[in-house]
Design a protein that fits this description.
This protein is α/β, with parallel strands linked by helices and 395 residues long. Helix content is 40%, strand content 14%. Helix 4 (79-89) packs across helix 8. The structure holds ligand T4K.
């Protein structure tokens, strides 16, 4: 106990030095070496062609289609724009069912596309919406389901597709966190009418900013390309209006380099995930989220659930203690979308209607992974959690 007490006194929150010399983030932050980056950028500078569907973007889209096994991979500025464009191109109207346990961009994209979200509670174990819960919310104004694939894992797409077909409504996926992941041998790119990915700097495929809409429906793909911009259009088709969701050559260069590294980044992520699992296995009240056995995960995030009673310490305080140590743990998603403006004001009927979402919002947090951590850092992070757990009465 004495040793533990000393350790607690040494915590940064109690005035001690920080455990890590630089912040360890929860996102991937997978950057290529400067030499590889420079070489790609020299090409852009010598061609003097910076955007408007240039050669690097063409190369990227072709490589993505091949790797993901999908007919159309249409790259855009970021994941939020991908969701807005997909929503417009699908021609849906009125209400769209989606979870509130997601990044707020899921709902914001619907709002930008003039659609109204209908928030569905998630399953407490899988963190995803289920066909059972969705079915209860379908009425004549609902035109689509926007399911979210979280953490590199996936919702039960087969059941959702069955329901969508029965009810004659559209199903599409926010797979912003799921690049490279598979479900029952099918890449998430091929789920539903369309599936979108984010290539934000914190994602396993990093274009600094970027995103992609994937679909096997060629007609939908043409509408998406026409809405994205007139550059990159293959066939002119009727669309409500056009915009600018183009991906620049700089973004495409980053994405191509990141794509080369995907397999090794995924392997490294899996190794880190397994190490956390091993080191934290005996901590009472702490559960590490398991990727679905039905699929191959990219291990985008290391997600923990804290039972505060069993662990003996509040989740928010634990995150605070860790952040003081430069362990930049996050609480995705606190608050849930249904409790965030504008939705808590505009759609107050959901504020107290999603018990599982509320439980997860209050118990989930993420630990650092990706390029900026290593085995030694993960050992240190785990030690801090164990120290706090074992010496709680002294805090
Ligand atoms: N749907 C879902 C389900 C999503 O998760 C997201 C995005 C979207 C849609 C929309 O896709 P995008 O439009 O973003 O492409 C982050 C990301 O900004 C966001 O992309 C992501 N999901 C969301 C879950 O998390 P923040 O504000 O929590 O994190 P941020 O950007 O501050 O970064 C996290 C950590 O990484 C920090 O500790 C700082 C560090 N960091 C970040 C950046 C950008 C770095 O060290 N270097 C960097 O360059 O939103």
């Amino acid at each position: 106990m004495k040793v533990g007490k000393e350790k607690l006194n040494n915590l940064a929150i109690n005035g001690g030095g920080r455990l890590l010399s630089r912040p360890a983030p929860v996102g991937q932050i997978n950057f290529p070496s400067w030499e590889r980056f420079e070489e790609k950028f020299r090409g852009i500078f010598s061609r003097e062609y910076y955007t408007n569907h240039g050669p690097l973007l063409n190369e990227l889209e072709a490589k993505l289609e091949k790797m993901l096994g999908v007919k159309n991979a249409i790259c855009v500025t970021n994941g939020t724009i991908a969701l807005i464009i997909a929503s417009k191109a699908l021609g849906i109207e009125g209400k769209v069912i989606c979870p509130a346990f997601s990044f707020i961009a899921t709902a914001q994209a619907l709002t930008w596309a003039n659609l109204t979200p209908v928030f569905c509670d998630v399953d407490i174990n899988t963190h995803h919406i289920t066909a059972n819960e969705v079915e209860k919310l379908i009425d004549k104004d609902v035109s689509a389901i926007l399911a979210v694939n979280l953490w590199g894992n996936s919702a039960n797409a087969e059941e959702l597709q069955k329901l969508a077909d029965q009810k004659n409504i559209k199903l599409y996926f926010d797979s912003a966190q799921g690049f490279g992941s598979e479900r029952n041998g099918v890449n998430l790119a091929s789920l539903g009418e369309a599936s979108i990915f984010s290539f934000h700097a914190t994602k396993i495929l990093n274009a600094a900013e970027g995103g992609c809409i994937c679909t096997n429906d060629d007609e939908l793909a043409e509408r998406i390309r026409n809405i994205r911009s007139s550059y990159g259009v293959r066939k002119v088709v009727d669309i409500p209006f056009t915009g600018n969701g183009r991906m620049s050559e700089a973004q495409a260069a980053m994405a191509l380099l990141s794509l080369e590294d995907y397999q090794s980044n995924q392997r490294r992520n899996r190794g880190y995930y397994n190490l956390y699992k091993k080191l934290l296995a005996d901590v009472k009240g702490l559960k590490i989220y398991e990727p679905d056995s039905n699929g191959e995960s990219n291990y985008q995030y290391v997600v923990c659930e804290l039972d505060e009673k069993k662990f003996g310490f509040p989740r928010d305080r634990l995150v605070e203690v860790m952040r003081a140590e430069n362990i930049m743990s996050r609480r995705y998603f606190t608050p849930g979308i249904h409790r965030s403006p504008p939705y808590c004001n505009d759609l107050p009927q959901y504020v107290n209607a999603l018990p599982n979402t509320d439980k997860l919002c209050a118990s989930v947090f993420q630990l650092p992974s990706g390029q900026d951590v290593n085995h030694e850092i993960i050992q240190k992070i785990s030690d801090i959690i164990i120290t706090i757990h074992k010496n709680l009465s002294d805090m």
